[in-house]
Structures
1.
Amino acid sequence: MFASQSSFVMYDEEFKRINVAIEKLLRESNAKVIFLVDKNGQLISAVGETEHLDTTSLASLTAGNIAATGGLAKLIGEKEFSILFHEGEKDNLHISIVAGRVILVVIFDQRSSLGLVRLRVKKASDELGQIFKDLADKAESAEKGGGTQSPFAEITDDDIDNLFS
């Protein structure tokens, strides 16, 4: 299943569907920025006012935050905390786990509210969960159908030697 894999291949069709879903969430929640991050800390996609943000650091710190709170959850007998909220003076962070595999980060300010963000995130999470299920199904059928497991599987030692000579 998808959650047990340490990495996955992103197909263009699903990437476009993901961007449509998070752009819709950005509009409907009146948020400033929305990120989708792999649990390993890799940024999958970002929409909104991202030009003044260090997206790489935000992605890795968010994954670290999820990992740390996961440790806290286990200490008190919970599987995980699926939603985190951080309130700041100007901006707020709403962080949620989608499909057990990716982290959805919504940055919003006074133009929106926590209630609206939570409502819209729930709806978007269902849609994103379906996209990631479709992605997992596609990857599984490609693997079973004789598709290569790695995009590098057909590269030979000679190809590598030619590249570096």
2.
Amino acid sequence: MSTEHAEQALTPSSYITHHLSFNAKPIGDGSFWVLNYDSFIMSVLLGIVVMGLIWWVARSATTGVPSKGQAFVELIFSFVDEQVKNIFHGNRHSFIAPTALTVFLWVLAMNAMDFLPVDVMHHFVYAPLGLEHWRSVPTSDINTTFALALAVWILMIYFSIKVKGLGGWIHELFYAPFGGAKFFKPKSAIGFVGLLLSPLLFVANFAFNIIEYVSKPLSHSLRLFGNMYAGEVIFLLIGLWAATGLTGTIFGAILGAGWSIFHILIVALQAFIFMMLTVVYLAMAHESH
């Protein structure tokens, strides 16, 4: 790296912009679709690694005294299964529990990439591969978190229609939460008023349900993205401070170690919250108002 480039990299704007830039590949004319292939490749690789490790441990599992790896995996399995059992009261082992386990481990692995020192990875891994910049944390990309949230959203609608039927799902859109004409007795005065107001209730019910359906993937994705993106920026600011001199290096190392310890909680907690919201949304899809 040239001296001029190194000096530019130490300015807050250029340093942070450099490490937060994506390797984007336009799709088509690039006016709308763009693929951040560093986020995509890291997501796929981490999914393969995590599921491969789980498969390897499960393949070598024994009924006797478990190994340390088997005991750790069984602990994770039981933890996730217990969380799902407290929320979902159907046959959780057919789909819900495996999905929750997959989401938790996958998001946890993607979040954990935030612990990789960006400058070390750049100089010793990415630069030798000819990559000027590379985003190692897929969940700090809004496209990744929104794709995960949309997948859960599609599953939620699928199970709502599967459990209640298409007619039952549409009926719920217009009759929940305030009900409609069928809930009023037309022979009473209150029932007569309710009968007159039922078209307005249909509109209100539909509006509230549409808002709910739109807000779920937004809150689901933005919560994870915001926390991981903020954590990545803080690591970059600490690294920038550490490059200012001996004093900055000492305090940067102390702050970096402290933030890394605190970030362990954030990484695990955000994976847990994303998993729990996934289970809650899928459980709500199986229930009727």
3.
Amino acid sequence: MKVDTMRKIDKWAGVPLCTLLSVVSIVTDLFRGKSGRPAIERTLFIELSEMGSAIIADPAMRKLKAEGNAELFFVIFKDNVKSLEILKTVPAENIFTMRPSSLLHLAGDLIRFMIWCRKKQITCTIDLELFSRFTAMLSFFSLAKDRVGYSSFHDEGMFRGWLINRPVRYNPHVHMGVNFISLTNQALGFYQNPYPTSLVTGHELELAKATVPEEAKNKVREKIRGLYPEWKNERVVLFNVNASDLLPQRRWLPANFALVAQNLVAQFPDILIVFTGSPAERGYVQNVIDMTPGTRCVNSAGVFSFSELVPLYSVSSFMITNDSGPAHFAAVTDLKVFVLFGPETPSLYLPLGGNAEPFYLGLACSPCVSAANHRKTSCTERPCITGISTIQVEERLARFLAAGV
């Protein structure tokens, strides 16, 4: 299904369904009673649509496992499940995937989900999504006694019933990593009201690093040589020029990427620019490369498997990318990542790990997407992202290539 279709269904069907189910939820919770601390022994995290968010949520999941001795489970859209394979915090047998391709598939998966939750004996859910009514219903259908998730509390709008019985007030002014830790702190019983009053320290947001065998790095090097036979171990620079269809407004202009690549190749004879992407993005990537007359630009879209991305990041000098999943995947390595932000804000979504640096204009209209509008914008001019100049980006990347800082 298209993203806009899912938004409409979530709104027009989600509101009445959440209202009706809330009546059942309230009555059920009254009979069950409420203990002081959630039963977190077998906790299900819910994050369907964002691959990058699965990485940002990793510190929160590890905290629940370490401090609460919880067994972790996860439900996610099938197309995004590979993001959980990077750090392997959740065992593969504890991951449930759903197919968003059609309503029929979703309906069938919902039935399978309910059976799976009973089989796994889920005791608690933590809904990581920002006010999705569908994920609130998943929390309810899991039949978990304790259901943690975001609440607007005294704020207007963003209604999704009363299916969440351990509400946490969402704070749009702090990083999503802090918001995710706040959900975990509620599950751990650190506070009882919707205000997440527990301090979240920088140490808690430290991201685990992936272990990359030398064999995996060598395999990636051989694939690079296959793309560019003349490669003599020159420095590899990565360009990720696309972004998911969830928010296409995040894309910097293809011509801008092409111009920066062309000028960097001219300035630095010891670099090879590798354009990355999925198999479906190969045509989009090739369009950018066709605008670069330089010979040291290669199209690797569809060449590297998902499991080879982390080794690729480990042998590269830096990556320039739109605000998208690869920026967060690279955060599990020491790769320097430059991220172009437009309709989103680095205050909430800058990759964890300390190696990410944003390009962000911070216009008066930015960010124009948020939890309040289900991350939808009708802006077509996109000055927040198109206004980031090629000169600004090129000069910063050139400084990094020259000095390494």
4.
Amino acid sequence: MAAEHAEHALTPTSYISHHLSFMTHPIGNTPFMSVNVDSLVMSVLLGILGCGFMWLVVRGATAAVPGKRQAMVELAVEFVNEQVKSIFHGNISFIAPLALTVFVWVFLMNAMDFLPVDISAYIYEHVFGLEKWRQVPTADINTTFGLSIAVWVLMIFYSIKAKGLGGWFHELTCSPFGGHPVLWIPNFLFNLVEYISKPLSHSLRLYGNMYAGEIIFLLLGLWAATGLAGTFFGALLSTGWAIFHILIVALQAYIFMMLTIVYVAMAHESH
């Protein structure tokens, strides 16, 4: 019995690996394709929550003195519109709602990091029967890559729409070094690097910050389990990190939104 208890004893490695394990479901019979159910479900639920909240506030909007919720939404809409207008000088009827959606959605996904890890894990396991469940979708690189690739596809779509397929292909092969046939391959390779680097930097920046924040919360939780002094200092530092993390959560949502605006705006411009 003692050996069995020691085998199942919680260690720092098992504690962290448990909290960083995804609920993965394979796709088909291949071992190379699977979906992280927790990231997908949390992303969809938070997207519905964010869009539903905005819809309810707009539906009940009044021209009289706005309430707190309406005032908050109006400030968010005006802030996003100002950011879009400062970068994109065309019709903002699509890009402004896109930027607002991206900001609200990413902010909500990032904000899941504020929920206490151990309490949430206990609820997921003992209430919902989910032994493995990651609650921060943006700490999953698949989520951030999915978001960045969607923006990348929009960037290519609007580039072709603004310049035409021929104009877009001409830009790929004739800029920035010139249109001489000898320079077509160097131009294409240069633009290829640019096209590949955009979704990489867009996704990895958000993922790296949220994953690092999650690791720090786990390390502070481990410290809190070392004894009375560890509990005190762990709780104190966790509170301080949570307050600082508010800035990171909002800042990363803002940066992701701004890069989305910049990339779509660049698609309408010529080199």
